[in-house]
């Protein structure tokens, strides 16, 4: 029996590298028993409620998405022509509720599909309602999550947890509380990190190599 490997993935629904990185890791599940805990980490909290102009905020985004389209083909990912950077806070609040009821992974996937594949502004209430409905979360539940203080507190706790791990960008993967991988790295780098983890169970190690950083 394969040993279960637990990963924490600090992520935001507006992060295309998170969308790709998650797909890379999931592609390894044939060889490794990986369990991913998606942790909502608000990337741009100052974004206007209606969203910001993506190209004004990030000149060169078109070129980045061309690269992501090419790299994402292997994993069946597609990217629409995006013009808006949504405010992800409300969606992240619903994500905390989804985690509470065991629907987090499905909700994360649905939000990524809504934004990156369908090009929707996932900061809009109705888009969040429609997307949540696809995974069995009702409109009433969505609006309740918007206004329940415990989900806002959960997001704050996520940020504090990220600080503990030294997270300053997403995606950041924390593997078995021991190894940190930052970015949507290649499968080979993730495999190396996993093999290093297995090899060092009886031996202390530290430092960083090829994007995999051991936590001290």
What tags apply to this protein structure?
216 residues, six-stranded mixed β-sheet, 16% strand, 8 strands, alpha+beta, two-stranded antiparallel ribbon, globular, 46% helix
Brief characterization of the structure:
It contains nine helices and eight strands.
Fraction in beta strands? 15-25%
Round the Cα radius of gyration to an integer and report it: 17 Å
- H/E order of the elements? EHEEHHEHHHHHEEHEE
Q: Label the structural class.
A: alpha+beta
**Unreliable stretches covering 5 or more consecutive residues:** 202-216
Going across the biggest sheet, name each strand in turn. Answer: 2-1-5-6-8-7
Distance between the termini: 29 Å
Instruction: Give the CA-based shape.
Output: globular
Oligomer class: single chain
- What is the count of DSSP helices, taking H or I runs of 4+ residues? 9
- DSSP helix fraction: 40-55%
Got a strand count?
Answer: 8
Q: What integer is the average pLDDT?
A: 92
Biggest sheet statistics = 6 strands, mixed
Question: What do you see in this structure?
Answer:
Helix 4 crosses helix 7. With 216 residues, this protein is α+β, with helices and mostly antiparallel strands. The model is unreliable at 202-216 (pLDDT under 50). The protein starts with a strand and ends with a strand. The strands form two sheets. The chain has a six-stranded mixed sheet. The longest helix has 16 residues, at 149-164. Strand 7 and strand 8 form a beta hairpin. The protein has helices at 16-26, 54-57, 61-72, 89-100, 104-117, 125-133, 139-147, 149-164, 187-199, and strands spanning 4-11, 33-40, 52-53, 84-85, 172-175, 179-182, 207-209, 212-214. The protein contains nine helices and eight strands.
